[in-house]
Design goal:
5% strand, single chain
């Protein structure tokens, strides 16, 4: 693909707004997986997502780590 510059043509054919939307969607998906893994978000039949038990160890540590990173305590 690189020999005939097809790769460059395909990349340039995608608008910048679509590229930014793809990046934002992938970031939101990864954040959702991280929140689910830490227990902050849990599954529920009616709404598919629900706030988990924030008093347990894993969600507390995840929230503490997030605030430590964000505010630089």
């Amino acid at each position: 693909m690189s020999l005939f510059k097809i790769r460059e043509w395909v990349i340039n054919a995608i608008p910048n707004s679509l590229k930014q939307g793809i990046v934002a969607g992938i970031g939101a998906f990864l954040a959702f997986i991280a929140l689910q893994s830490s227990g902050i978000i849990v599954g529920r039949d009616a709404t598919l997502v629900m706030l988990g038990d924030m008093t347990s160890f894993a969600p507390m540590m995840a929230a503490l780590g997030f605030f430590y990173y964000w505010f630089g305590l």
